[in-house]
Amino acid sequence: MPKFMLTYLGAPKPKSPEDAQQMQHAYRAWLSELGPAAISPMNPLKATEVIRSDLHVESGSATGMSGFTLLEAESLDSAREIAKACPFLSAGGELELSEIVDMGS
Questions:
Q1: 16 touches 101 (CB < 8 A)
Q2: Would you state the pLDDT for residue 10?
Q3: Cα–Cα distance, 4 to 99 (Å, whole number)
Q4: 4-28 confidence digits (pLDDT tens)
Q5: pLDDT tens for residues 57-89?
Q6: Are 86 and 95 spatial neighbours (Cβ–Cβ below 8 Å)?
Q7: For the chain, what are the domain ranges?
Q8: Are 39 and 70 in contact (CB under 8 A)?
Q9: Closest CA relative to residue 92, chosen from 15, 25, 18, 40
Q10: 45 pLDDT band (50/70/90 cuts)?
Q11: What torsion do the CA atoms of 96, 97, 98, 102 make, to the nearest 10 degrees?
Q12: In angstroms, rounded to a whole number, what is the distance separating the alpha carbons of residues 32 and 35?
């Protein structure tokens, strides 16, 4: 079955611990609905650096990526429907959906 990477971009920080807890609850509920389709859920990123072609290193993300989830779905259309239900969108974030190329074993 095709695999997809759902990349989390942006989203403002929660305004309060209660907001953060509510978002976490909604996110976990969404993941539980996905069941085995979420093959590597909840991969938030911590320290991020950009290493330029001239080997210069900068702190922070070049893309605003804050995490990712790996999914299995029948098609890009199916993966898109899964992504559209993600509560990260209602928090003001954006999602990037990419099909992963199977390079074989």
A1: no
A2: 84
A3: 4
A4: 999 999 877 888 999 889 989 999 9
A5: 998 777 888 899 999 999 999 999 999 999 999
A6: yes
A7: 3-99
A8: yes
A9: 15
A10: confident
A11: 140
A12: 5
Under CATH, which number does the domain 3-99 receive?
A: 3.30.70.1060
With contact defined as beta carbons under 8 Å apart, do 98 and 27 qualify? no
Contact between 59 and 49 (Cβ < 8 Å): yes
* Distance separating alpha carbons of residues 11 and 65, to the nearest angstrom: 10
Q: Which phi and psi (to 5°) does residue 19 adopt? A: -60, -40
The CA dihedral of 81, 87, 92, 95, to the nearest 10 degrees, is: -40
Tokens of 10: 């942006």
Residue 38: C-alpha distances to residues 12, 18, 31 (Å): 24, 26, 7
Q: Whole-angstrom Cα distance, residue 32 to residue 71?
A: 13
